[in-house]
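**Backbone shape codes:**
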Amino acid sequence: MSSTVVLLEPEGLASGDITGEGIVDIDDLVRMADDWLQSGSLADIYPAPPDGDDIVNLQDFAVLAENWLAFYSGGQFGGGLALRPILSR
């Protein structure tokens, strides 16, 4: 069995910032919880579109949790946890 490590390299916003406020916080978690196991949601962040799985599930939550309280400001990431490889398939 082979596996692939996925690197998270967001453009402009931290991965998991579903609401687009520039920080991964409770507002993003609430949005994800509201859309849990639903398709066609902005909370479906992993695998990234257009190749996503079209369902909000534990893979999406893992990305949000990994970047909890990370923010994007002035062209740099700060706070929270550093972005790094988190999921293998």
